[in-house]
């Protein structure tokens, strides 16, 4: 499975965790039943999922200063997750260029977000990257 597909599945998984109280490992097992292409050896999927879950507060702190006229609580959940994944990749995944992380976040926003999500996420991430 490509990183593009893996990233999308990770976004879908992270979104569903907001509706379930089961342990993450159990949720992953159930998710794999629905998406058999995600195997136990899919390290990138697990890296994104656990990386975002375990460092959510720190990731949010990185991009919140660039939310123009928005507060984190008002941000659509899909946009927040897409931003968290992108910021996680930018900060921790060395073999993915920053521009690719931003581009893939914009694509996810076009698919899952509102009409304005893609341009908003592009602006937030671009400003975040400039601050590094």
Written overview of the protein:
By secondary structure, this protein is an all-alpha fold. The chain has a single domain, classed as NusB-like (N-utilizing Substance Protein B Homolog, Chain A, Orthogonal Bundle). Helices cover 69% and strands 0% of the residues. The protein has seven helices and no strands. The protein has helices at residues 3-17, 24-34, 43-54, 56-63, 77-92, 98-112, 117-130. The protein is globular and about 40 Å long.
List its traits:
globular; N-utilizing Substance Protein B Homolog, Chain A; single chain; about 70% helix; mainly alpha
Q: How does the SSE layout of this entry go?
A:
Blueprint: H1 3-17, H2 24-34, H3 43-54, H4 56-63, H5 77-92, H6 98-112, H7 117-130
Helix pairs in contact: 1-3, 1-5, 3-5, 4-5, 5-6, 5-7, 6-7
3D shape: globular
**By CATH's scheme, which homologous superfamily applies?**
NusB-like
Percent range of helical residues: 55-70%
In CATH's first tier, which class applies? Answer: Mainly Alpha
Largest sheet: none
Order of helices and strands: HHHHHHH
The fraction of residues assigned to DSSP E strands is under 5%
* Average pLDDT metric: 95
Count of domains: 1
Distance between the termini: 31 Å
Give the number of DSSP strands: 0
Low-confidence stretches: none
Number of helices: 7
Structural class: mainly alpha
Under the CATH scheme, which architecture would be assigned? Answer: Orthogonal Bundle
CATH topology: N-utilizing Substance Protein B Homolog, Chain A
> For the CA atoms, what is the radius of gyration?
14 Å
């Amino acid at each position: 499975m490509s990183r593009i597909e893996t990233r999308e599945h990770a976004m879908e998984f992270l979104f569903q965790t907001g509706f379930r109280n089961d342990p993450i490992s159990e949720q992953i097992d159930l998710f794999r039943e629905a998406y058999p292409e995600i195997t136990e050896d899919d390290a990138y999927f697990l890296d994104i999922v656990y990386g975002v879950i375990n460092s959510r507060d720190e990731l949010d702190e990185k991009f919140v200063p660039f939310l123009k006229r928005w507060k984190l609580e008002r941000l659509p959940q899909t946009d927040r997750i897409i931003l968290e994944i992108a910021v996680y990749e930018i900060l921790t995944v060395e073999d993915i260029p920053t521009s690719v992380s931003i581009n893939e976040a914009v694509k996810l926003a076009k698919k899952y977000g509102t009409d304005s999500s893609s341009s908003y996420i592009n602006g937030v991430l671009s400003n975040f990257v400039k601050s590094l």
